[in-house]
Amino acid sequence: AEERLSRLEQVVADLAEAQRRSEDRLRRLEEAQQVTNLRLGRLEEFLGLTVEEHAEEVLLLVLEEKGLRVVEGPHSVPVDGEGQVDLAAVCEDPAGLRVTVLVESKVRLSASAVRRWADRVTSEGFRRKLEQAGLPGPYLAYAFGFRVDRPTEKAARERGLGVLSGRGEVVAPAGPIP
């Protein structure tokens, strides 16, 4: 009985040690996950800024080609309760008429992202919030993507949005949104 008790005590001690090692590995894994999440967050932030910077360069060239003079911006604008507009620029045409150009930017622009952006930018509530943020209408709306496929272009045409890529204006907006 004492021998069995001794073996049982050893088994319990081994199990306790295995549990401690498992807890140590779990703690190290959690620490590594935190570091990974931090690095991933930094990468997402960097990539997002890179996409927006590239979108801004393309937008400025397109606006110049269209004869629109930038009066304000482009810059990102927080919109109360709606997140932010990646790029907004108030422009003036040669006749002195103003239009606010809005751009949503993505690395890979999908048709569903274009539809969501179109729904957002055509919403009266959103446009009211844009005005409250200092961005008066009418609006020209674009979606930018490093990668744009044909279904995305089709969705943009159907919704009246413009599409920008590294090649410039892929799809022209149908016209201003009041």
Describe this structure in words.
There is one protein chain. A six-stranded mixed β-sheet has the order 1-2-3-4-5-6, with helices on both faces. The protein contains four helices and six strands. Helix content is 53%, strand content 28%. The mean pLDDT is 92. Helix 2 runs parallel beside helix 4. It has 178 residues and is α/β, with parallel strands linked by helices. Strand 4, helix 4 and strand 5 form a beta-alpha-beta unit. It is elongated and about 100 Å long.
The neighbouring-strand order within the major sheet is 1-2-3-4-5-6
Which consecutive residue ranges, at least 5 long each, have pLDDT under 50? none
The major pleated sheet works out as: 6 strands, mixed
Shape designation? elongated
Order of helices and strands, N to C?
HEEEHHEHEE
Would you report the number of β strands?
6
- Helical segment count: 4
Mean pLDDT: 92
Secondary structural class: alpha/beta
Percent range for β-strand residues = 25-35%
> Helicity, in percent?
40-55%
Report, as a whole number of angstroms, the end-to-end distance: 90 Å
Roughly how many Å is the radius of gyration? 27 Å
